Amino acid sequence: MRMTSPLAHLLLTSFVLVLADPASAGPVERPEDRPEPVPPEEYALYDRVIETKFLTSQTSLVMIERLTVTRLGPEERNPPDRAYFDENRFFEGGLPPDLVADFLMKIRRPSRLEPRFHFGVPYRFVSDGELEGPEVSLGPIPVAFSPIDLAQDAPPTIGILELSRVGFNGREDQALLYVGDNRPDGSGAGLLVLLHRHGQAWTIVNTEVLWVARRDDSPAAGGPLQPE
After folding, report:
1. Residues 150, 75 contacting (CB under 8 angstroms)
2. Do residues 73 and 85 touch, judged by C-beta distance below 8 A?
3. pTM, entire model
4. Are 208 and 191 in contact (CB under 8 A)?
């Protein structure tokens, strides 16, 4: 009769236990814990904002954080709430309540961005600080400028851009989103962007600057900076 060594018996027993209880092998990601993908209809608004606010004729690459943000700035610790909007009175307090409510609901959890951008310049996603493979964005390359004069010396590579989910009002003819631009040299800005829909086209109607950092500046030094 063939005998099994104590070590072999121990290994066999451990293997059987792992099969019987997969949780004992380590944490398992549950489907409900995975970030949901951003709905396709939101990408047209991302394209409009990136084209208008960040791209220049010299732009050759845009870097985008893969997951949408849940905070409106590098110094914020929690997702914004209604009190945050009431206190700051963005856009002179004229945002429709249903638009703000939808934006706040969507920004509480990160969502996953997919390669659905079409702003005319190649782009790459950034995940956990690592660049993913390049994506090609279709469409014409516009000549744009930044309302806070950050594009006057914009480098060929833009980003890393951080995007929020897009909030809509009940009629879906107004939209609100946040975009942050964090550059390697320490400069950048964070914007709330308000858009209106006319027919099928979305147009930017107003922009609120939440923070600005220039070279060797930090938003933490004196709170959010306003454009000069």
Report:
1. no
2. no
3. 0.75
4. yes
Residues 28, 159: Cα–Cα separation, whole Å: 33
CA distance 205 to 202: 9
pLDDT (tens place) for every residue of the chain, 228 residues total: 444 455 445 444 444 444 444 444 445 555 556 899 999 999 999 999 999 999 988 899 999 999 999 999 988 889 999 999 999 999 999 999 999 999 999 999 999 999 999 998 999 999 988 888 888 776 655 444 444 444 445 557 787 999 999 999 999 999 999 999 988 778 889 999 999 999 989 999 999 999 998 876 444 433 333 333
Distance CA 225, CA 228 (A): 9
3-class secondary structure, 196: strand
| Residue 213 dihedral angles phi and psi, to the nearest 5° | -130, 130
The DSSP bridge partners found for residue 196 are 174, 203
Three-state secondary structure call for residue 162 = strand
Strand stretches in 136-226, DSSP E: 157-163, 167-168, 174-182, 188-198, 201-213
